[in-house]
Design a protein that fits this description.
The structure is a homodimer. By secondary structure, chain A is α/β, with parallel strands linked by helices. Chain A folds into 2 domains: 2-112 and 297-308, ATPase, nucleotide binding domain (Nucleotidyltransferase, domain 5, 2-Layer Sandwich); 123-292, 2-Layer Sandwich (Nucleotidyltransferase, domain 5), CATH 3.30.420.40. Chain A is built from 10 helices and 12 strands. Chain A has helices at 35-53, 89-97, 107-118, 178-181, 183-195, 213-221, 225-249, 265-278, 281-285, 298-308, and strands at residues 2-5, 9-15, 21-28, 60-64, 68-69, 74-75, 102-106, 127-132, 136-142, 145-147, 253-257, 288-291. In chain A, strands 3-2-1-4-7 form a 5-stranded mixed β-sheet. Chain A is globular, with a radius of gyration of 20 Å.
């Protein structure tokens, strides 16, 4: 069984050992609820699913949408909800579901493993995964396993400083990749471009004040010049961060998940060019940069992969 | 036995299993010689040492000063000498010395392992190593072993692009860490500062046209203001590259070797501040940034560590 606990959404899924989903159920995260209440709601959802399928999970994986202490199997904090400091999520879920084998990790690592085992990274034991959505997270796969570093903090590619002194980031620093290429940063750069009067013929001008990253990507795919330029700039920032990681780790595959990664060619074509431009020739030649394959099931299947690992 | 083959220097050393050097001999690399001639000269040196010590090496490690294909145990090329493309160095040394167990790797990986096993990284299974000298190389230690990536190209932190469109690098790209913080880049930035008339009272002005990185570091340690500023800028560039790697890999130690790393506090104090400024708080808190401990024996002891691995 895979459980996906995010700041806005919850999901539970049952899968076989090949990662085929037998059932999946989704819900909203009650932002006023305590961690115990949220775990209880998710456990209800999971138990109902098991009852309907007459299945008992052999193991449970949890993808947690925030920094996690893997060694202690506890949360560190949550950037979206209150009261999630040091919550022993693994133990709570084990007790609620009556399953012994429970493994939790942050969503970057879970999704990385899910893509490596079941998705766009299959066959690649050396892989880098990025979630590019509201924030930018990541996971490092080494020898087919999640690499967590010295204190469970590996994979934080979203906070690579790309432009020193650049725009402020959620982490309090300036010019991080997340502050330049995440969903909110794309929207911000588009608003700035519109405010500066760039390409007055662009459809983005009519959306001033309410531009979203999704709208920028859609307009770019539809051929809008300004939206296309903003996606090329996004690709350039992502390319700088990814190329640094490709030089350091020499993966054979980089997988991009999250909302922004659904943008298609308007992102991936300039992104591949940027990685080739900024990485060493040998390292660039050894890697392919592709979109995630698991879509919205990435969190649940990542959790399943954790349970199977 | 450890062999160190560089563009300008050769060395051979015999060590016990604890990394204690029993003997070491050094020579110059004959720039006009073929790879076969250089291997023969090094083998002579090594055999003479074995004869004098009445020792027979159980295994031989080779630290090679250029890109190497670890899987094939061949050189890829050499940035300093001609004719080093695809040389089966491991096999040649095995034949020349009559030793079966021979392992070669590039000097970044060899020195990284040497520091991890015998030097400043002892006790740290998750470690990052940088050589900061004429170029900037590196090695990634994961689980106490060299991590080589998908095609033997991991560890190339010197080519992290720090300033897009910045000064030209030896790799043909622009704004790489190597083009901003290596020995020749420090000298270039110092010459530029002098040419621009920065701090006319600085002792660097009297050295115009022949400033070396070593002179900048010495003057900085002696309290010269401009030299100090140039070392702070160097630390800032290095800090950006190291912080990106610290976010991605979460090592518990970063070890800096090479000539520039001998600079002392004028480099390491601002470098530690820069890493703390540019890396995530948790990742920065988990890591210590220290100078290499093995000094000029780093290559030979790194090769010994390869032989023992």
């Amino acid at each position: 069984m895979g459980l996906d606990i995010g700041g806005t959404k919850l999901a539970a899924g049952l899968a076989d050992e090949a990662g085929r989903l037998l059932a999946v159920e989704r819900g909203e995260t009650d932002r006023g609820a305590t961690p115990a209440e949220i775990v209880a709601a998710l456990a209800e959802m999971a138990k109902g699913m098991c009852a309907r399928l007459r299945a008992k999970p052999q193991a449970v994986g949890i993808s947690y949408g925030g920094p996690a202490d893997f060694a202690r199997q506890t949360t560190i904090t949550c950037h979206h909800l209150q009261g999630w400091e040091g919550i022993p999520l693994g133990r709570m879920v084990a007790a609620a579901l009556g399953v012994e084998r429970v493994v939790m990790d942050n969503d970057g690592n879970a999704c990385a493993l899910g893509e490596a085992v079941f998705g766009a990274g299959r066959g690649h034991t050396e892989m880098l995964y990025l979630t590019v959505s509201s924030g930018i997270g990541g996971g490092v796969i080494i020898g087919g396993k999640v690499y967590r570093g010295a204190s469970s903090m590996a994979g934080e590619i979203g906070h690579t400083v790309i432009v020193p002194g650049g725009p402020e980031c959620t982490c309090g620093r300036r010019g991080c990749l997340e502050a330049l290429a995440s969903g909110w940063s794309i929207a911000r750069r588009a608003e700035e471009a519109v405010a500066a009067g760039r390409q007055p013929g662009s459809t983005l001008h009519a959306m001033a004040g309410k531009i979203t990253a999704q709208a920028v990507a859609e307009q770019a795919e539809a051929g809008d010049g300004l939206a296309g330029e903003i996606m090329v700039e996004t690709a350039d920032y992502l390319g700088l961060g990814i190329a640094a990681a490709v030089n350091l780790l020499n993966p054979s595959r980089v997988v991009l998940g999250g909302g922004v990664a659904k943008a298609g060619d308007c992102l991936f074509l300039p992104l591949r060019q940027a990685v080739a431009r900024y990485a060493l020739a040998e390292n660039a030649a050894a890697v392919s940069v592709v979109p995630a394959a698991l879509g919205d099931a990435g969190g649940v299947l990542g959790a399943v992969a954790l349970a199977l690992a």
